[in-house]
Amino acid sequence: MAKRPLFAVENVSKIFRLRSPREPWGWHGEVNALSNVSLEIHEGEVFGIIGESGSGKSTLGFLLADIEAPTSGTIRFRGQALNQMGRGERKRFRQRVQVVFQDSGSALNPRRKVGAVLRNSLTLRGLPRAERERALNEVLASVGLALQHADRYPHQLSGGQRQRVGIARALAMRPEVLIADEPASALDVSVQAQILNLLLDLREKLNLAIVLISHDIAVVHHASDRIAVMRGGEILETNTAEQILRAPCHDYTRTLIAAVPKGLRDSHL
Asked: What is the per-residue pLDDT for 20?
């Protein structure tokens, strides 16, 4: 018997209404960010979502994390529709599904030290005070940071270190799913590889499912088990990473592959 998917997205659309610049309380248009999107995400897999800016990929990630609600359609987590969850169920869901944002500098409070940020997550998880320091050490070590980093402010860290703190904050909740929205695009190329390899190591150690959102097909192909290609709020094709590379079904996917510089294509594709 096939296992039930972790996430099931069924005919989901998302429309954003635009406020009128001349009438602050009025509306002057709509943007169809997603149109009839359907997909499944399974336990322990890395599911890549690839597309150019404005394709709807980040909107889809925010809907999966319940940061935004769909205009129509249904998103189910372990068979339960997100819009039918009660307050307690929604709280548990938001512990089990965590987001790692692209801009680690903006995602961290500049006035709080790293230790305070992580202790807050451990508190929200319900960990007793007596166990928090041990857990703090463990979560820092899991992302390759030392205990001394707990006493630093975000501006005292490098971009790669800040992104590791963002991942640690998510891990502190003991999630089942990480939604990584362009987690390495703001970093130098060498640091990008470190962050992506860290995510893959955590996936193996913790049996995490990872939704990896990126505009870079080389990055997504390197890290993902399956890939969905998006454009204009629609999914053009979904397949294994290898099949997407070797036999893409859509011209747009072929264009994305052809746009990768040859050196990167040889090493990542």
From this structure: 67
**Model confidence at 17: pLDDT above 90:** no
Quick: pLDDT tens for 220-236.
988 999 999 999 999 99
The per-residue pLDDT of the chain, averaged, comes to: 90
DSSP string, 176-195: SEEEEESTTTTS-HHHHHHH
CATH code of the domain made up of 7-268: 3.40.50.300
Domain ranges of the chain: 7-268
pTM confidence score: 0.91
CA distances 240 to 39, 145, 163, 215, Å, are 13, 33, 28, 17
Q: Which residue has the tokens 């068979």?
A: 79
Q: Which helix H or strand E contains 15, and what residues bound it? A: strand 7-19
Task: Give which of 76, 70, 67, 56 is closest to 5, Cα–Cα.
Answer: 76
